[in-house]
């Protein structure tokens, strides 16, 4: 089972990478660019052990725990979890 | 108009960030994690100047040029462009 985790900055948190990318694009001649936001994603492949079965809800909860414990910083990040590929269909 | 650009590593290019994230998740007790790939995205807002009209195909081509010129490194990166929000619908 594959999941996509998107980590984005919370509203109001400065995004210097996005801002500077916007400036650089403008300077390169792309004057129509109004804003750029930078995001980070992880594509995670999870394979439950034998006999555990694959419960989509359960796996999603597990991935949410991964976000809380490692992938995202709750002070500045929001995250979205999305199932990309479910094996048993 | 808002577009999402996803920059990912080409097949065969080492992804130490993804590998180490996987190791860390395994060490934290998430033993079902088989692989982690790290990706980068940009959410770009483009607003064509007055009188230009909004041609989705044209904007996409412009964003592709941005990828070639600045956002992606063609030696190691692949990119995907996706229209998230079209204003004039």
Summarize the structure.
The structure is a homodimer of 89-residue chains. By secondary structure, chain A is of the alpha+beta class.
General description of the model:
The structure is a homodimer of 89-residue chains. The first copy, chain A, has two helices and three strands. By secondary structure, chain A is α+β, with helices and mostly antiparallel strands. Chain A has one domain (2-85): Phosphoribosylformylglycinamidine synthase subunit PurS (Mth169, Chain: A). In chain A, strands 2-1-3 form a three-stranded antiparallel sheet. Chain A starts with a strand and ends with a strand. β2 (33-46) of chain A pairs antiparallel with β2 of chain B.
Oligomer: homodimer
Strand residue content of chain A? 25-35%
CATH class of chain A: Alpha Beta
Q: How many strand units of chain A?
A: 3
Rough outline of chain A: elongated
Question: Between the first and last Cα atoms of chain A, what is the distance in angstroms?
Answer: 11 Å
Assigned CATH architecture of chain A: 2-Layer Sandwich
Q: What pair of chains forms the biggest interface?
A: A-B, 33 and 33 residues
Largest sheet of chain A: 3 strands, antiparallel
Number of domains of chain A: 1
Sketch the topology of chain A as an H/E string, one letter per element: EHEHE
């Amino acid at each position: 089972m594959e999941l996509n985790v998107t980590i984005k900055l919370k509203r109001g948190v400065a995004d210097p990478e996005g801002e500077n990318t916007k400036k650089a694009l403008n300077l390169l001649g792309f004057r129509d660019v109004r804003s750029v936001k930078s995001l980070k994603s992880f594509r995670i492949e999870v394979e439950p052990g034998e006999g555990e079965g694959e419960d989509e809800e359960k796996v999603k909860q597990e991935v949410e725990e991964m976000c809380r414990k490692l992938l995202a910083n709750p002070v500045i990040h929001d995250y979205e979890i999305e199932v990309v590929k479910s094996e048993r269909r």
